[in-house]
Design a protein that fits this description.
heterodimer; A: 115 residues; mainly beta; 11 strands; B: 109 residues; 6-stranded mixed beta sheet; 4-stranded antiparallel beta sheet; 0% helix
Chain lengths: 115, 109
């Protein structure tokens, strides 16, 4: 186990609703990244937070937003859910700004189904 | 953005070495090369990463071409537990990791 926990593990929402996913990062880590993984594909980068500020964003619309708290846990919020938002959402924690030269630890993910 | 290209699938026999190739011909000078693997119903797991020099750790070795346009992940003795999807990833200045479709490794007993 990596020490990165995500909740809930599974979630079913209706199109147009809003959802909040949570991530508790590994102890000592101050960077959290979020990824979306559609079935059969590799994870796609959504955004990254470093010490409570957004520190990079992928090609996702503004209805995908996030927060990082002083204890470095994080939330991913998605508004106006669409059917294509159905995916596994992964959170990864690491240490340091510009965490490209370090190891990231992933959680087990939250499986979101939009109906 | 630079992309990676990997074979869709590879097979190996147990206890034999495995060489997983990755092409990244448009890599930029500051991109790090990472390898992660993902078992079914789990999040990706870090394997190894490097910039220019070859790297070794307890899990694997990473061989990076001199021009950095390709790399190879080497598992020295494959076990059944190494069966997974292996992702070759470039990590750029804006801190994202760009995953491709990965290589599904099957290990035969």
């Amino acid at each position: 186990e990596t020490g990165v926990t995500q909740s809930p593990t599974h979630l079913i929402k209706t199109r147009g609703q809003q959802v909040t996913l949570r991530c508790s990062s590994q102890s000592g880590h101050n960077t959290v990244s979020w990824y979306q993984q559609a079935l059969g594909q590799g994870p796609q980068f959504i955004f990254q937070y470093y010490r409570e500020e957004e520190n990079g964003r992928g090609n996702f619309p503004p209805r995908f937003s996030g927060l990082q708290f002083p204890n470095y846990s994080s939330e991913l919020n998605v508004n106006a859910l669409e059917l294509d938002d159905s995916a596994l959402y992964l959170c990864a924690s690491s240490f340091g700004r510009g965490a490209r030269n370090t190891e990231a630890f992933f959680g087990q993910g939250t499986r979101l189904t939009v109906v | 953005d630079a992309k990676t290209t990997q074979p869709n699938s590879m097979e190996s026999n147990e206890e034999e070495p495995v060489h997983l190739p990755c092409n990244h011909s448009t890599i930029s000078g500051t991109d790090y090369i990472h390898w992660y693997r993902q078992l079914p119903s789990q999040g990706p797991e870090y394997v190894i990463h490097g910039l220019t020099s070859n790297v070794n750790n307890r899990m694997a070795s990473l061989a990076i071409a001199e021009d950095r346009k390709s790399s190879t992940l080497i598992l020295h003795r494959a076990t059944l537990r190494d069966a997974a999807v292996y992702y070759c990833i470039l990590s750029s200045y804006n801190n994202d990791m760009r995953f491709g479709a990965g290589t599904r490794l099957t290990v035969k007993p």
